[in-house]
Amino acid sequence: MALTLAILLLLATAWVMWQVKQVMSVNQFRALWADFLLVLVALLPLGLLFPAGRSLGQASAARRALQSENLIAARVHGAEAHTWAWFTLGYAGALLLFLLFVLFFIANNVAVGRTFFQLELIANSFGLILKAFWVNVVIFLFAGFFSLVWGLVVAVAKLLPGKPAQPIRFIATFYTDAFLSLPSIIVIYLIGFGLPLTGIGFFRSLPLEALAVLALTLTYGAYMAEVYRAGLESIHPSQWAAARSLGLSYGQTLRFVIIPQAVRRIIPPLLNNFIGMQKDTALVNVVGVIDAFNQARIIASNDFNLSAVTTVAILFILITIPQTRLVDRLVERDRARFRQG
User: Fold this and answer.
1) Helices marked H in 159-246 — which ranges?
2) Residue 283: is its pLDDT beyond 80?
3) CB 239, CB 190: distance < 8 Å
């Protein structure tokens, strides 16, 4: 089966590359490097013949071992055959997805490619998009810092002990419940347009970027507070008792004993919230901030083409993927530490 699949993919890849060549000819695009690249891609499935052949060879060895009643060797060869077969299927699946993407890209005489990946427009608008993208980065940095501090304040308020602190706990709980329920775009819209309309001089003098930072801080402060609360509550009560028995006050216990331990445990979920906030900075365009998405929309409206928006998408991907990998590494490190006890 693996060998058959490899041969079929070889034929399919050759056919798709031929279709690409036909489209290039229709559009009068001729380049030696492009032809070389098409041939190279067409030959890629040849690499699948090696694991497929190994799978077939191991399967034959397993059958021979079975006929000679050597069950251990048969199982070993059978397992090897399955491993090589799955290796072939995995890479074949990836190649199949790539071929489908190529067919989608050249569909309707490359209309898809022209709509989303017009290289000339991407090159001409890249400077404007990059400059506007810096607005997203600045908003994200300020909102990230303020929400981190604000979230800790709210989490500590929710965990204050005793009946005198009950009103504070109620306000903190109401705040988190309310802002966890509200979509970010509604908060941005209400603050971005609503606060200047109140006529209060302080808010009227604030730039739209600052109002966007305020809206994101209030929204993601609630998410951060919940993460902090989970981290603080995960610390064993004996840590509290030991610190208080040494004479530390409630605030000193939080500052020197509980929070340092809790923060180490919640770094991955905090980073996940940062990634979410980073993507939500694109929502600030609803109040008129000229961020990357808004700039791309202006260019797309003028040129009737979405390639500039594709540039914004690529920029977000480029700055998000390293953070995602960092979260994965931190989670894996915590798991390793947990397994070691």
Assistant:
1) 166-181, 184-189, 195-197, 201-205, 208-233, 237-245
2) yes
3) no
